[in-house]
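Exercise 7.
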Amino acid sequence: MTDFLSRFGAVTNTGSENTLDFGPIDGRAAMQSHRTGEQHEAAVVFHAAANITGAVTPKLQDSDDNTTFTDLVTGQAVTNPKAGAFAFFPMPKTHRRYVRAALAAAATGVTAYLEPGPAKPEK
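Solution. The predicted structure, written as tokens, is:
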């Protein structure tokens, strides 16, 4: 189950529609313990809403100032994903305040969100 606060929205090679703000994070905090006070796994889920021609490589980027983003983690490339295809990778426990989803190549029709617990497609 996802909610508005965990959705990156539409994703392109220039970044996602929404940037998630995890609030002030110091060097001792991890994403999961910072917000909830407990450790648990989370996954980033990328979903292709339409057929895509070519390779699509999902990635996460982070930033201190919500302006200058650098790559945080890059997932495996998916070639010619069909409508309804999903790609998952674990949400890094250490990152800077702002996080957004992006693609390593130009594509449209991809959305992304955070999924608490084991990764599974949204119904």
